[in-house]
Specification:
Elements: H1 2-18, H2 22-27, E1 29-31, E2 40-42, H3 44-52, H4 56-67, E3 73-79, E4 82-87, H5 89-97, E5 108-113, H6 125-143, E6 146-154, H7 159-170, H8 179-190, H9 194-210, H10 216-233, E7 240-243, H11 244-262, E8 265-267, E9 277-280, E10 292-296, H12 304-315, E11 324-330, E12 336-340, E13 345-346, E14 354-360, H13 364-376, H14 380-384, E15 386-391, E16 394-395, H15 413-427, H16 433-449, E17 457-458, H17 461-464, H18 472-488, H19 500-510, H20 512-522, H21 526-545, H22 554-574
Parallel strand pairs: 5-6, 5-14, 6-7, 7-12, 14-15, 16-17
Antiparallel strand pairs: 1-2, 2-4, 3-4, 8-9, 9-10, 11-12, 11-13
Helix pairs in contact: 3-4, 6-20, 7-8, 7-9, 8-10, 11-12, 12-13, 15-16, 18-21, 18-22, 19-21, 19-22, 20-21, 21-22
Length: 583
Amino acid sequence: MLLEKAKEEIVSRISEITKMDAEVISKSIAITSNPDYGNLESRISFDLAKRDRKNPAIVAKEIADSFGKGKLVSSAEAKGPYVNFFLSHDYFRKSVKKSVEKPKQKKKKAIVEFPSVNPNKPWHIGHLRNALLGNSISNLLSFNGYSVEKADYIDDLGLQVAQSLWYYRSFPFPENEKFDLFVGKQYVEASKMLEANDKEIRSILEGMEKGEVKDAEPFVEKVLASQNVTGFDYGIYHDYMMFESTIVHELLPKGISMLKENGALRLESEGKNLGCWVLALGDEFKGQLETDKILIRSDGTTTYTGKDIIFHLWKFGIFEKEIRFKKLFDQPNGVVCYRSHKTGDSFPFGKADLVVNIIGVEQTHPQNIVKYAIRKLGYDSQADHYIHVAYGMVKLPEGKFSGRAGTWVGFSADDLMNEGMEKAEERMKEASLADRKRLVNAAIKYSFLKVGASKEVTFEWERALSMEGDSGPYLLYSFVRAMKILEKSTAKESFKSYNQDEKNLIFKMSQFSEAVESASKQYEPCIVANYLLELASMFHTYYAKHKVVGSPEEGERRAIVKSFANIMETGLGLLGIETLGEM
């Protein structure tokens, strides 16, 4: 990345002048808050002042006076105790010519798991946030060189599925209703009838666990197909879905043996956990309710956390056990989504270098236990690369909602899309249906992704669809505006000279790759979202002040606008937002 190379040039030169450690110098460099003071600054003079017992301002001046001129840095200037650096014309020229720099392929695989919705309800807006985070993080990792597998965990053996299947058998399905929505509504009704029908439901559950309930599999697959129609509306796709039944029937036996043989588990011979196999938790769990975590109950069944640990041993390829997959459904992006199945074919899924799970913040404790178990088994590197992206809930101005209580009705991802399409029709009467959907997607995705993952989101249509800034439509408009300028401009691109406003805009554009890398490392799409907002705002200010088409500097300005459009399209794509040709 060009910005990184400029920083390396500064570090190398300061190191030569001061004999200070390069890593210390590197940490002292930051982007200036005031472009009048240059592009980059260093506060290394504070460290040197302590070492040499000098005034920091004097040290800063000595560095600036000795710095000279480099390829990417034209000059250095002391401003009090800070050393400010001005980038060269060559830096700005190269930034415009190569606006988007993709890192080299890492030859590493990442598995990103999301949104893991139980197959007995539609996606509500909380599930949607999970899916949008998972999709964007997958895009970021892919951009930064990873081969990414988008996975989904399907709890096809849960009590909730047994309850819904029992109710589905008892009551007819209205063909004109979306299947996951129907099942979700029926589950709310079924939950009111549990006590009276508990024995029958428990019998279904036991049969499902043994693989003896023949209509369970098609029921679950039908719900998944319906749920993923919603996902397709938001551009969410997967490579495969791992069914819990696969983990129980094919992974558990070998996984449990490995845990026992490794000494990670302890068989309790007395007390409340008599007959259970438990994982003794370490010092990092002190003060929490659990000191031991039951992974295998006294009746021989495995807890959810136990299954999750074994699933992740498979994800990392820690134990060799082939899982077969068969086609589940086709997706609009042309990629087939597979599901784990004993009659399927071999696929090179799993064996990841990095595992990222998008799971609610309330699941932090069990996620920490999974990571701890992997480390206790002796796989420190894998534990270091086990990432839990904890996300906060989504609220509407009306307040919170609950899938179990059924108050998600009116708060589903489908409801959100339908309401958005109605609003888009009012605003874009002449636009195609596809363009309206792109606008709605931009409004929703930006609103959800501009906020740090762990924070709550309150979604409001008025703000989401605003054209006044801090919205997806505002970013789309900045791209459309740039493309219209390029359509009208016939000048040949040139890179001769830039005024200060152009340098400021170009320098901001040159920070794109750094923003993407930071977002990828921190698993925070909000870093890209906020960067794009700042860049779009600078661009709007620039073209309002400086004429492009027909100006003497049209060649230089056309190149800048083209670079901006390229960055915006790429950045929006990383958020899962498609651009528009007209607005």
